[in-house]
Write a structure and sequence with these properties.
By secondary structure, the chain is an alpha/beta fold. Helices cover 33% and strands 18% of the residues. The structure holds S-adenosylmethionine. The site of S-adenosylmethionine has 22 residues, from helix 8. S-adenosylmethionine binds next to helix 8.
Length: 225
Amino acid sequence: MADFLPFYGRRRGRKLSDGSKFLLEKKLPLYLLPNKSHNPAKIFTHSPDKIYLEIGFGGGEHLAIEAKNHPENGYIGAEPFLNGVSSLLRHCENQLIKNLRIWPDDIRFQFSLWPNSCLDGVYIMFPDPWPKNKHAGRRIINKDNLAELARLLKNGGELRMASDHPCAKNWILASILGNPNFDWPVVSPDDWNIKPQGWPETRYMKKAIAEGRKPAWFRFKKLVI
Ligand SMILES: C[S@@+](CC[C@H](N)C(=O)[O-])C[C@H]1O[C@@H](n2cnc3c(N)ncnc32)[C@H](O)[C@@H]1O
């Protein structure tokens, strides 16, 4: 993997409060994913039953709830947006979450280090849509990243996604349906129109719904091939 990969999102938003700076300076090291972690199974203080990765966790609401509800599992979150990282750290500290590691950068730097079939599930909630054709190369769902996700996911593992953006919904579906490593096991429109039970809310999810947009909920399965 190259040392430099262009990342087009924001790394910082509004000025970090003193509390956020404290979390990033003093608490992030306790949750930090080791820089060259070659085996996600070995980065937790317990031996996790299952390992999940969330890419672009934003404020960390979804990941924190998953980790809190399943202490037997291990969770890894990647997010280059520092304000979001401090928000997840706040959840971890307030809720005494221990089974979570944070990669405060672009997840693509980690992909190639990890072994095949090391993840039970991957969450990508409300990815940046990058709707303009000239920005299509910036979308997190693309041929290369899907190939890596297929390699990293166990057979039968889940790729959980949601989006409220028409362009992103179509792009996600077209990409997955064109990839022989994934299945979309749906029987009726309710399967993508109704939020599956137990999926925690995210900041973007709430914003989209409050502004009248209709998210689509996707549950893809890594196929045994
Ligand atoms: C639209 S936001 C959604 C945040 C959150 N999932 C939610 O639903 O509230 C997309 C997030 O993905 C992050 N992101 C984009 N590309 C990424 C990458 N390669 N690795 C990790 N995070 C990434 C961005 O920084 C951004 O915070």
